[in-house]
Design a protein that fits this description.
Blueprint: H1 5-31, H2 36-58, H3 60-70, H4 78-91, H5 100-111, E1 119-122, E2 128-129, E3 133-140, E4 145-151, H6 155-168, H7 170-176, H8 182-191, H9 193-197, H10 199-213, E5 219-220, E6 224-228, E7 231-235, E8 240-241, H11 242-248, H12 251-272, E9 274-276, E10 284-286, E11 292-294, E12 300-302, H13 309-320, H14 323-332, H15 345-352, E13 364-365, H16 368-379, H17 384-391, H18 396-415, E14 418-419, H19 421-428
Parallel strand pairs: 5-11
Antiparallel strand pairs: 1-3, 2-3, 3-4, 4-7, 6-7, 8-10, 9-12, 10-11, 13-14
Helix pairs in contact: 1-2, 1-6, 2-3, 2-4, 3-4, 3-6, 3-8, 6-8, 12-18, 12-19, 13-14, 14-15, 15-17, 16-18
Length: 434
């Protein structure tokens, strides 16, 4: 991982400079008569290639941000989506690995100089690489296949430096993912970094999930074998990555994966008191026996009382068109700030009603087209929906929940899944059924 702050800043600064240079070049091509649509498509492809190459190579906060963006790929307009989709998919599970000597040094620092004695075998070639660490396949001394996650040296400085710099370019990223609030996303990632950097915290979270879902017929969470601040050892689980199912799964496979994902996200706050808060396809697999394997518990929302009942009541009121009661509840939950010009009840209902459309029928087909429609609706600066959205506040206690639910919906749309979401919400979302 490049650790020099000035070098990382220069690499990040190359993104807007590259966009500006390509825009000038594209303008020149149009002047000499080249097809405008083809020029725009070429610019989009080159921008995506540069953007996510930089984010992936830098790892750290840059790659973490890229992975967070990846779940909103379904919101990108179809004529621009393909280059972004390809670049984002690469970010979900891959990054340049650190060298074997560097990785060995981290293992010795974290597990002791005789760390090799803990393993019957250890593969120096990483099986996967992510934003702040890479994963190696090994066999524990008792014969269990294990996954060993090793944190990159300098990840802490790189994370915070990257996220500060990325906030300077938030307007650029906003254009790439319409309808997504990029600046609050960056701030929320920054606020939670300390939790993700300590693998002991992640181990504690994962143990709680693994205990609750032990023996579950639909979900499997690998058990923790050992942990240190910068190394985490868990049982190895084989499965088909969700990105593969998104790319070429059958309809039945995509529907099954979507149902399992929705069930996991809505049920875990009631069952564990926590919500897995890093929803991107790289963190999910489907095992051969049809279970959803969930990994990476560095970011979780603590919800000891489960999902907030007020959230369920909002969904129900929006579903039933009770606009005045909906506005009153939003006011009580601080979605409408005192002293701010209050939006009209019918405008609030019109803004929120499309989001609960999946609950109107027994099953709902989540599609990229549906998500693009919602993104364009709330992102159109000339629309009433845009003005209503700007008049509403997102309270801190709902920020992470909002991002996770939005990210999960993005994955469902990538899957093109048709699932019984109303049944899932009725069973697990307090306040919705009554």
């Amino acid at each position: 991982m490049p650790r020099n702050t000035a070098a990382r800043t220069a690499r990040l600064a190359s993104i807007p400079l590259g966009v500006a240079g390509r825009a000038v070049g594209g303008w020149g091509k149009r002047l000499v008569g080249q097809n405008a649509e083809q020029v725009s498509a070429d610019l989009s492809a080159k921008t995506a290639e540069q953007l996510f190459a930089v984010l992936g190579q830098l790892k750290g906060g840059a790659m973490k941000f890229g992975q967070a963006l990846s779940v909103f790929e379904a919101a990108v307009p179809s004529d621009l989506a393909e280059p972004y989709r390809e670049a984002l998919t690469k970010l979900q599970a891959a990054a340049p690995p650190m060298s074997a000597p560097t990785m060995h040094r981290v293992l010795a620092e974290q597990l002791g100089r005789k760390w090799r004695a803990r393993f019957a075998s250890f593969d120096d070639t990483p099986a996967a690489a992510a934003s702040i660490g890479q994963v190696h396949r090994a066999v524990w001394h008792d014969g269990r296949p294990v996954a060993v996650k090793v944190q990159y040296p300098g990840a802490d400085q790189a994370l915070l430096s990257d996220l500060r710099q990325l906030q300077r370019f938030s307007r650029l990223f906003q254009k790439l993912v319409p309808g997504t609030e990029v600046k609050p996303l960056l701030q929320e990632l920054t606020d939670r970094m300390s939790e993700e950097l300590d693998y002991r915290s992640e181990a504690s979270n994962q143990r709680a999930f693994a205990k609750e879902f032990a023996g579950d017929p639909h979900v499997i969470v690998p058990r923790v074998v050992a942990s240190a601040p910068k190394v985490l050892v868990t049982e190895w689980v084989d499965g088909r990555p969700l990105a593969s199912i998104i790319r070429d799964g059958t309809k039945a496979e995509r529907d099954q994966a979507g149902r399992l994902l929705a069930e996991f996200h809505y049920s875990s706050p009631a069952r564990v008191g926590m919500l897995h808060s890093d929803p991107h396809p790289g963190n999910f697999m489907v095992t051969e026996d049809g279970r959803l394997c969930v990994i990476d518990f560095g970011a979780v929302a603590q919800l000891p009382d489960g999902l907030p009942a007020a959230h369920g009541r909002m969904m129900r009121l929006a579903l039933e068109g009770r606009s005045c009661e909906l506005l009153e509840l939003l006011r009580e939950e601080h979605f409408v700030l005192p002293g701010v010009h209050e939006p009209e009840a019918e405008h609030v209902y019109a803004y929120l009603a499309p989001f609960v459309e999946p609950m109107k029928t027994e099953t709902f087909h989540f599609t990229r087209r549906w998500m693009q429609k919602q993104a364009m609706r709330v992102g159109n600066v000339r629309s009433q929906d845009f003005r209503t959205g700007r008049a509403l506040n997102l309270p801190p206690q709902y920020l992470l929940l909002h991002r996770v639910m939005g990210g999960s919906t993005g994955i469902l749309c990538q899957l093109d899944a048709e699932i019984p979401v109303r049944d899932v919400i009725t069973r697990w979302q307090p306040g919705f059924a009554t």
